[in-house]
Amino acid sequence: MNIKQRLNEFRKGIGPTIKELKFMISRMKKSPLSIVGAAILVFYIAIAILAPVLAPPTSWDPYMIPREGYRAEPQAPSEKHIFGTAQGQYDIFYGCIWGTRTAFRIGFLVVLSAVAMGIVIGVISGYYGGIYDEVMMRFTDVIYAFPGLILVMALVIAVPVTFRFHIGPSMLIIAGFIACFIGVSIGSERSRLRLALVLLGLGLVATAIATAVFPGQMYLTLGSLMSVRFTPLDKVMLALVVVGWPTYSRVMRGEILRVKQEDYVEAAKAVGCSDARIIFRHILPNSIYPLLIMASLDIGAIVLTAAALSFLGLGAPQGYADWGQMISFSRNWIAVRGNYYWFTWLTPGLFIFIFVLGWNLLGDAFRDVSDPTLRRR
Amino acid sequence: MGKILEIEDLVLRFYTYEGVVKALEGINLFVEKGETLGIVGETGCGKTMTALSIFNLIPSPGRIEGGRVLLQTENGPIDILSQKEDVLRKIRGKTISMIFQEPGSALNPVYTVNDQVSEVFLVHQKKELVKNALDGLEEDLKKESSMRFFYKLEKGIYKKMLKNPESFSWKVLSRIPIVRRYQNRLKTEMRKAVVNILREMEIPDPERVTDMYPHELSGGMQQRVVIAIALTCNPELLIADEPTTSLDVTIQARILDLIRRLKDRFESSIIFITHDMGVIAEMCDRVAVMYAGAICEIADVVEVFKNPLHPYAKALVESIPRPGEDFKSIEGTVPNLIEPPTGCRFHPRCPMAKEVCRRIRPKIVEVKKNHFVSCHLYLGQTN
Fold first, then answer.
1. Distance from CA of B280 to the nearest CA of A (A)
2. Which of its termini does chain A have fewer beta carbons within 10 Å around, N or C?
3. Distance in angstroms (rounded) separating the CA atoms of residues A246 and B56
């Protein structure tokens, strides 16, 4: 086989994917709103990428907004600060530009981790059912029982800045994770449960031994490798993930319950496929779309929540480039007669508003384009 | 002729919110090697559930409460109901396989025909595929080529793979980009095998059809693909669960013809589940008549049509529409299986019901040679 033939084969293999992509793009072109959404996001992505050019960093940490003295009163837009300065003489332009990176980071990381968690938990509880389902779904109920924003705030405050894994508990946690993994991935129904229980028991024993060998050292740290430092922004993201995943896992579970009933899953079982094969090959591709659409719609909402937290003073540290923080700087200057300090809140507000609008438009378009039941024919 | 499958006193219950559904009550059946057994009965009388319990694949609220399903294998008979999941997985699709009722929904919409048929090969016959791939490699190695070095590497991989095709390291290797290209040879082998089996299913232009998605095929074609999936591993027992119900009559005839010819070819036994008496007459050697989760009558197909003994079987044969005659239906409806009638389950609709029918469930007895009936009318005759 020469190279030309190989190339042809490759083209043939990748053909359907390209065709599908072309179809998606042609559909997108037909709806003007999606073009607007896409354009907005392209604009923001450009800002995020070009941030060092648009607003050259002055200190070692580019995310810290440079400030011009310590005066409280914001300064109106001028040649030097084209969007003006906020309370404490922080440059609004710099904050907005670098804040774009923060927004993307929060949006993507939070939604990706929440979706990943939602998929894992939704798959396990939906496919295996029974006790797994019961335990996990009651756990999601617990999280649902709290008002979302309040729980996020509580978590942000509760999570310590440095999180050390101690020898005893970490053994238990690791054993628990391994037990869950093994329990789900191999063996038959009964042996799986037995194995998981044995491993958990071993973990307990290891914990006991660790405590005995290092007397009074339950809290012996495993060194810096096992300790994690959270920046305040990490804490916000962690809290948002913890509060966000139950929605995804519920949707995933519902979808899996639907697909599980389909004949082709039954047929795959009758052919002798293993559970992993059925889940990854037959169930997931048929059930993941609603989740992806939800995720694309949620990125904007997550950024909005993070901004709200920052506004309340719970998010980014003082002076960190973050849109919510920029607005929180303007808190004292919003209700001034004659709206003299409009520039303190209008620009960052517009940045957030347009960003969220862009994601929502694109999410809608994505739904219209990618949901096979809503299109074609 | 030995028995390939024997079902003894199978009891299946569904634990639902409304109560316990007594879906199957003491089913006794056997299938001989090379024969076709038909199972007829109204909708909801437990035909499909009988089939699924042969696979030990009863859906969730259902539980098998008693009985045995003995499958004849090389190492003597094994009870499917008490086997572990991994043993069952090797049996399913290889020794017993199933043709599903709705070809449209039995195929996964997101994969091509090639993907779905080759899945069976991957699960059950990976070793043979690897062997074929190795042969192909030897051929390539004989030739002078710039790829010689890679072929040698490939050969090493395939030789190792031949020893243990299910090993974990292959799963890891097949996830690494570029390295996983070693699988391409396996894929071409698989494709050849799929095209072959599709050709045997009399699918025109199998090369093209393998790359199609299920929705691009007609109903008859889809059913052929489903049959191909069921027959890839030459199963000893094939369960056809109403394979022609959703097809129109001409396609039906061709599919039935195909199944019959394939059966002769592969020498497998078939359990043919249907409610169409015409199909039964066409296809089967013996017939089991089921009613409300119990078997009424088992006999040779001619015997059932000419000389049905059980009142339900009689009514069923009479209700076959014939031109020029009034259409006869069976009075009443199928009972609710949460509270099935006491005694014989057919007695509320039976024209010949006696007092004893209400109290005692009749045992199944051999009235004539190879003619089993479960009815009080004939219980006296054998003793």
1. 24
2. C
3. 34
